Design the sequence.
């Protein structure tokens, strides 16, 4: 929030149009975070929310943040819990992009596996990137949302080996 507000404040003097867009993106993120945690949204809406979040972070991180999307194969109308993907992308930036002076690429890839969807969010891992620890609140919130809606079929797997947060 503070990084975003500082970015917007600096843009108000140099690029009012971009500052206004960032404020609209931030308002959408607030709206989503204040909505009923039990609500389901179409996958396309969750992806759009992530894109708005990434637009804000792109203002702050510039060319250090690169994003690759491979989600066209996913059914856009599939209902998922709101704020399922955004916290994982935020973690990918926090742990993989921010600590590295060179930044890196976040890859968001989705595939259909039978009657299930698999969405992988990967970020760079290696010397100069990654922060140890964290309180894992975002991951636990996503796990609880998935379990509440999908039971044991909905799960979050986090692995350092492949540097992938997997959402099933």
Sequence:
């Amino acid at each position: 929030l503070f990084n975003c507000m500082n970015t917007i404040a600096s843009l108000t003097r140099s690029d009012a149009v971009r500052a206004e867009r960032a404020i609209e993106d931030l308002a959408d993120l607030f709206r989503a975070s204040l909505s009923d945690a039990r609500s389901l949204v179409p996958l396309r809406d969750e992806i759009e929310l992530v894109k708005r979040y990434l637009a804000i972070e792109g203002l702050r991180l510039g060319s250090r943040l690169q994003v690759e999307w491979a989600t066209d194969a996913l059914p856009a109308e599939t209902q998922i819990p709101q704020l399922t993907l955004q916290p994982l992308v935020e973690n990918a930036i926090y742990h993989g992009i921010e600590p590295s002076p060179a930044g890196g690429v976040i890859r968001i890839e989705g595939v259909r596996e039978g009657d299930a969807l698999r969405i992988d969010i990967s970020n760079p891992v290696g010397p100069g990137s990654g922060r140890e620890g964290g309180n894992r609140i975002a991951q636990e919130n996503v796990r609880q949302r998935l379990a509440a809606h999908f039971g044991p079929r909905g799960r979050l797997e986090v692995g350092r080996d492949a540097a992938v947060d997997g959402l099933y």
